[in-house]
């Protein structure tokens, strides 16, 4: 069993003893702590928006969250089966105090989580999260009497509202997309992408749509993280059906990647690169991505006359840096697109609208578009952590070993080797160390990662 408390929310495996997994008692405790924190910061606004992906545990967790919030005297607007970006948009549109998204993103089906939003529909800051955790640890919350219980209502209008915002966004070119008459295959991984992605595609003028893993039951047909090794069915179907491209999203639809017409991967790192290229071609400005993302974004940004800035990993960190440098586009190399004048959150749906606009206007195939960008290879690896492992000590030993190389310790440890780099950090979402390395040569990237992973294993002993 696992329970992880971080800037990415309260995340854990369902069941087990309280405090060791995401048990019903933990759901109630952390929801109560969050609701109490909201009320202390704004006692006048007692409205919270919630929504969930299609996880098997989703309905159970939702019922616990709703009842807890109502018990605090908070009114709940429940979007039901939804997406992370849709809930973020709804929080602001509803003038709510905050929101909770019930999803563990890319984690397997035994996981679920509470993603916590502020009144802007953005993830709460690290400092705010620390306050919530302190309230939870002290169980410092009081529930209201029967005459002051919150009000519960459902709202199923935000799918269409989200779609309308996308088709009306100035840089989304519906006529150009419609004219290309794209044939598309979608991997919806048995979650809400099966509802939302086809709706967006149809609104963009795409009519030839095949959806794989289309039953919205949370019984993920494959590992739900949209990585190449998990997208073989999508790749095969694109090739077999002679589709123009394939689209894959994660269970809560905030990550986006594409498959080329020959079944090869466009590369999740290059989703942001392509969208940034499109936006920067029409709006001059700066870009941001996290320290684990490809330097191809920096190359494209400099080409368009802008400045690139890296941030610590985590959506809230990317958003903070984007605001600081007034970025016109940003995100994360895991296929997370953040369009600031749309909303400050990773959104696969606006990403689809912008990517398809770029592809349609380019008059290229998706493979040709990918070939127009600089080639970098990222090797993405991880090492599982046993309880009690001193990660800080391991990182200190590695830093000492490579002390003659340029090192960044803003978020974990990033070491540069001429034009290559490796970034190692503990995950916000799993009990692991992530090791990402990049080079213009695939073998070199893999070898750098293997060398660092061997160092970690030696220092763990």
TrEMBL record:
Keywords: Isomerase, Magnesium, Metal-binding, Phosphoprotein. Residues 395-453 form the Alpha-D-phosphohexomutase C-terminal domain. InterPro entries: A-D-PHexomutase_a/b/a-I (IPR005844), A-D-PHexomutase_a/b/a-I/II/III (IPR016055), A-D-PHexomutase_a/b/a-II (IPR005845), A-D-PHexomutase_a/b/a-III (IPR005846), A-D-PHexomutase_C (IPR005843), A-D-PHexomutase_C_sf (IPR036900), A-D-PHexomutase_CS (IPR016066), Alpha-D-phosphohexomutase_SF (IPR005841). Belongs to the phosphohexose mutase family. SUPFAM superfamilies: Phosphoglucomutase, C-terminal domain (SSF55957), Phosphoglucomutase, first 3 domains (SSF53738). Transmembrane segments: none annotated. Pfam families: PGM_PMM_I, PGM_PMM_II, PGM_PMM_III, PGM_PMM_IV. Gene3D superfamilies: Alpha-D-Glucose-1,6-Bisphosphate, subunit A, domain 3, Alpha-D-phosphohexomutase, C-terminal domain. One of its GO terms (molecular function) is phosphomannomutase activity. Its cofactor is Mg(2+). The keyword Protein transport does not apply. Residues 8-142, 174-263, 270-374 form the Alpha-D-phosphohexomutase alpha/beta/alpha domain. This is Phosphoglucosamine mutase.
């Amino acid at each position: 069993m696992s329970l992880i408390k971080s800037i990415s929310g309260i995340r854990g495996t369902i069941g087990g003893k309280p405090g060791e997994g995401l048990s019903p008692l933990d759901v109630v405790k952390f929801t109560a702590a969050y609701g109490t924190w909201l009320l202390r910061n704004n006692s006048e606004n007692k409205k919270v928006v919630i929504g969930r992906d299609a996880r098997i545990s989703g309905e159970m967790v939702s019922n616990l969250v709703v009842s807890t919030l109502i018990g605090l005297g908070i009114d709940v607007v429940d979007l039901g089966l939804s997406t992370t970006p849709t809930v973020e948009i709804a929080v602001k549109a509803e003038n709510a105090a905050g929101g909770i998204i019930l999803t563990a993103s890319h984690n397997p089906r035994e996981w679920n989580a509470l993603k916590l939003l502020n009144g802007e529909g953005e993830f709460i800051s690290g400092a705010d999260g620390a306050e919530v955790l302190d309230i939870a640890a002290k169980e410092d919350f009081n529930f209201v009497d029967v005459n002051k219980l919150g009000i519960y209502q459902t709202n199923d209008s935000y799918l269409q509202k989200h779609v309308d915002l996308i088709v009306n966004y100035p840089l989304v070119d519906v006529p150009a997309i419609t004219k290309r008459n794209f044939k598309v295959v979608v991997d919806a991984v048995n979650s809400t992408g099966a509802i939302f992605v086809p709706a967006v595609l149809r609104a963009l003028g795409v009519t030839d749509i095949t959806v794989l893993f289309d039953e919205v039951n949370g019984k993920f047909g494959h590992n739900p993280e949209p990585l190449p090794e998990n997208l073989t069915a999508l790749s095969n179907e694109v090739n077999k059906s002679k589709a123009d491209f394939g689209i894959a999203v994660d269970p809560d639809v905030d990550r986006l990647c594409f498959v080329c017409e020959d079944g090869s991967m466009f590369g999740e790192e290059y989703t942001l690169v392509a969208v940034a290229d499109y936006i920067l071609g029409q709006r001059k400005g700066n870009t941001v991505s996290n320290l684990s993302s490809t330097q191809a974004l920096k190359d494209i940004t400099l080409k368009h006359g802008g400045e690139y800035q890296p941030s610590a990993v985590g959506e809230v960190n990317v958003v903070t840096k984007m605001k600081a440098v007034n970025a016109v586009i940003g995100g994360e190399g895991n296929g997370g697109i953040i369009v600031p004048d749309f909303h400050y959150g990773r959104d696969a749906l606006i990403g689809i609208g912008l990517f398809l606009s770029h592809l349609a206007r380019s008059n290229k195939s998706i493979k040709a578009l990918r070939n127009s960008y600089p080639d970098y290879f990222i090797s993405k690896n991880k090492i599982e952590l046993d309880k009690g492992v001193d990660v800080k000590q391991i990182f200190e030993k590695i830093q000492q070993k490579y002390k003659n190389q340029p090192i960044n310790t803003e978020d974990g440890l990033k070491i540069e080797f001429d034009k290559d780099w490796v970034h190692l950090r503990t995950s916000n979402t799993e009990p692991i160390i992530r090791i990402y390395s990049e080079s213009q040569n695939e073998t070199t990237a893999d070898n750098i990662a293997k060398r660092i992973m061997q160092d970690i294993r030696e220092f763990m002993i």
